[in-house]
Amino acid sequence: MKMSSGQMGRRLLGLTVAGMALAAGGAAFGQQPKPWEYTLQEAATPVMENITSFHNLLLVIITIITLFVLALLVIVVVKFNAKANPVPSRTTHHTLIEVAWTLIPVLILVAIAVPSFRLLFQQLDIPKADLTVKVTGKQWYWSYAYPDNGKFEFDSLMAADKQPRLLGVDNEMVVPVNKVIRVQTTGADVIHAFAVPSFGVKIDSIPGRLNETWFKATKVGMYYGQCSELCGKDHAFMPIAVRVVSDQAFATWVEEAKRKWARDDSVPKSFAEAGPATAR
Q: How far is Cα 72 from Cα 160, in angstroms, rounded to an integer?
């Protein structure tokens, strides 16, 4: 099908406008996956910065190894084929080569292990927390409680009318910037997984068990994640939205949240868990 120059111009204009809208949407909605993205999401915590650095180090190492092995294969194919080398060598052992191919991989693994253990320690060693948030995975939404700030709890469900698509929620998790946030997570029914890529956070939410992780967001904005465990038919529809705000904005939000989602402990537990808190 042939297009006239006018039709082609309009199509190019439409693609340009769509691209600008996507770019603007990415800026407005904060950290989220982007079309054709092949890198890690931009780091918003010290842990994620170290994860990115470790990833880049591994990328360099595996690239060098791959090129080295490719060079050896090319040398073997060119130099040791039947035509170029009709009389093959009968060498069966070479002490230097055997020592080298044992020692060099060990040194490479040690070079990988040292920053790996350092990063693992940083992820698991939770510093003194400024704020604790309890996150409960349910089928299929998240519930958030702030035990340090009063008796209130709210549910966060995917909002079909909000952008970004499949990531927008009705009630975001709100935390202050530059504060150590301890996340305690569990599951109410099946195993879920709380994951926010820009924070370098991914931890299972297991029924009957309380797992802990932490993050310290250094930039104000919106950050998105999703459940990362196959938890049932609506697994793909329980996003995580974290809004990082200033200390003053967080204090204001807490006061509003106390009024909006105040929890009444006199209500029997069976009734309290009958449905999402947003519907009560």
A: 54
- H helix intervals, the chain: 5-29, 46-79, 95-124, 247-260, 269-272
Distance CA 278, CA 170 (A): 9
Backbone angles phi, psi at 150, to 5 degrees: 120, 175
Are residues 229 and 210 in contact, defined by beta-carbon separation less than 8 angstroms?
no
Domain boundaries along the sequence of the chain: 46-84+93-124, 131-279
3-class secondary structure, 246 = coil
* CATH fold for the domain made of 131-279: Immunoglobulin-like (2.60.40)
Q: What is the pLDDT of residues 47-91, one digit of tens each?
A: 999 999 999 999 999 999 999 999 999 998 998 888 888 888 787
C-beta separation of 155 from 277 below 8 A: yes
Region of residue 221 (left: phi > 0; alpha: psi -120 to 50; beta: else): left
Close Cβ partners of 93 (under 8 Å, ≥ 6 residues apart): none
- Per-residue confidence band for 271, with pLDDT thresholds at 50, 70 and 90: very low
